Amino acid sequence: MAISYSQSDMFNFSRFFCGFLVTVVFFQYWVMTEYKLVVVGDGGVGKSALTIQLIQNHFVEEYDPTIEDSYRKQVVIDGETCLLDILDTAGQEEYSAMRDQYMRTGEGFLLVFAVNESKSFENVANYREQIRRVKDSDDVPMVLVGNKCDLAQRAVDGRTVSDAARAYGIPMVDTSAKTRMGVDDAFYTLVREIRRVSLQIYFVLIIRSEMDNGAEALLFFSQGVHRERNRDVPRKKKKCSIL
């Protein structure tokens, strides 16, 4: 059975599809060129060391507790030049009151723990839940980062970490701020997660916009099939009765 569509159907679908493509291109190359990343985790897990290694290609040997530091770097990720705006946060409990504010403004979050400190891994769940509560969303871009992988002794095995990442529904990256292993991958993976979630949101908005404008872009396929089926069904001739 051949299915044909009216010019109006094709126009509506073309308008929808072209609008979607234009939005994706504009979104990738113009609107979303700056990404606000937030690095969270307990004190001493290496949040600052990871960030400085990414920005300056340098490992900080001495631990200096951070209150809140901001860094910016231009990078190319998957062919797109973008600006990373990175907030390195305090892990100490006395600064916990500041968390809600930076969680509200951040687009994506690195959940950092040290593989030689089991408590820091356990506390990742608390950071994740607080982020979801503040953002009021179950789909916030996050990456689970196990730092200090250069150390011989681990308190958290890789299987436990991968199981947690799977349960959270987020990627995981093993890193070493000292050797620079996985540093780029951690931040770049987070950017890709932000893009993925943002594209989903834009796609939903486009569909809603088209439907609100009365476009039948998502319905004309089924409508066309329905019309063709109706054409193929022979109509019964009405009998005439002469009184």
Automatic annotation (TrEMBL):
<dbReference type="GO" id="GO:0005886">
    <property type="term" value="C:plasma membrane"/>
</dbReference>
<keyword id="KW-0547">Nucleotide-binding</keyword>
<keyword id="KW-0812">Transmembrane</keyword>
<dbReference type="GO" id="GO:0007165">
    <property type="term" value="P:signal transduction"/>
</dbReference>
<keyword id="KW-0449">Lipoprotein</keyword>
<comment type="similarity">
    <text>Belongs to the small GTPase superfamily. Ras family.</text>
</comment>
<protein>
    <recommendedName>
        <fullName>small monomeric GTPase</fullName>
        <ecNumber>3.6.5.2</ecNumber>
    </recommendedName>
</protein>
<keyword id="KW-0342">GTP-binding</keyword>
<dbReference type="GO" id="GO:0005525">
    <property type="term" value="F:GTP binding"/>
</dbReference>
<keyword id="KW-0636">Prenylation</keyword>
<dbReference type="Pfam" id="PF00071">
    <property type="entry name" value="Ras"/>
</dbReference>
<feature type="transmembrane region" description="Helical">
    <location>
        <begin position="12"/>
        <end position="31"/>
    </location>
</feature>
<keyword id="KW-1003">Cell membrane</keyword>
<keyword id="KW-1133">Transmembrane helix</keyword>
<dbReference type="InterPro" id="IPR001806">
    <property type="entry name" value="Small_GTPase"/>
</dbReference>
<keyword id="KW-0378">Hydrolase</keyword>
<dbReference type="GO" id="GO:0003925">
    <property type="term" value="F:G protein activity"/>
</dbReference>
<dbReference type="InterPro" id="IPR005225">
    <property type="entry name" value="Small_GTP-bd"/>
</dbReference>
<keyword id="KW-0472">Membrane</keyword>
<dbReference type="InterPro" id="IPR020849">
    <property type="entry name" value="Small_GTPase_Ras-type"/>
</dbReference>
<dbReference type="InterPro" id="IPR027417">
    <property type="entry name" value="P-loop_NTPase"/>
</dbReference>
